[in-house]
Here is the input.
Amino acid sequence: MAGALAAGSLPALSTPADNFYQDSLVIDGLCFGKDWGEAVFVGLKAANYSGIIESLDRQDLKTAIDALLTWRRRVEEHPDQLILALNANDFVLAKESGRTAVLMNFQDGTMLDADVDNVEALHSLGMRCFQLTYNARNLLGDGCLERTNAGLSDFGVAVVARMNQVGVLVDLSHCGPQTTLDGIAFSEKPVAITHTMCAAIREHPRAKSDQAMRACAEKGGVIGICALGYFVGPDPGGQTTIEHYADHIEHAVSVAGHEHVALSTDFPPQGISPWATKESWYEPRLKVFKPSYEVRWPPWIEALDSADRFRNLLVVLRRRGWRDQDLRKLLGENWLRLFSQTIG
Here is the structure.
């Protein structure tokens, strides 16, 4: 593991490197806007995001439908800034036109209301990705915080088949270990682990084993490495730095290959610190997540908590010898390839 580098010691990018980043396709594999006000749109532009996978409310079917309709209206109201991502080419179009493509995703299968046909119904409204489970068990399988590790149910297998059929990307980020492996095995198409980290570096319920990452890659899938501080290391805001984030990326690459690792944040494009407080962010999560989740405050890594996060990451990875072609894959090309193979 590389030695920690204090966020303040990161040098400014040279002009050629900054041009490289601006010219690259940049996709955040799991993002959500905080109230979707002006700060979010400014953050998207400053971060040079050509695309995001956006997390929508999903408690039940009605909530999911309302969330999809809200997003369709938001895109219609901001045609100069947003594109509704229904296929891979929408991300290319977004890059060419200086906009951000938004791929609508749910982080649980509960909104299906036990009906596999709702996969197609939600797809018709614009859903293009969803996570089979969140942290707890649902009708599809076991989440990562369940005491048991039962894997996909028969209903879960049927849902995966329908997702493959209609063109919805299978996401396994919060799934338990066996549900993750089953999701990969039963899917006929490549799958995503949109936002995770490496269990070999950081033992945590949300981390994925080398076995899972290798299986995902062998199926043609993509693993997004999450930039949330207490996922990357036990001491965000302190000893955990952008170097540790780079360590997770490089370990995933050593297991899965450069073609199968990408980036995600799990927070808004402008970062967490501009809007979150201990009362609004930390304390509610203590009530929702089990102690094994090890929620910490502050949850961010300073060098990743601004729109310059991936520019800062380029500095670190270039210092470690990364080639431009591999940086482009990491920044967005791997996500684009996966979308073309799954949602069309």
User: Anything to note?
Assistant: Residues 324-342 form the longest helix (19 residues).
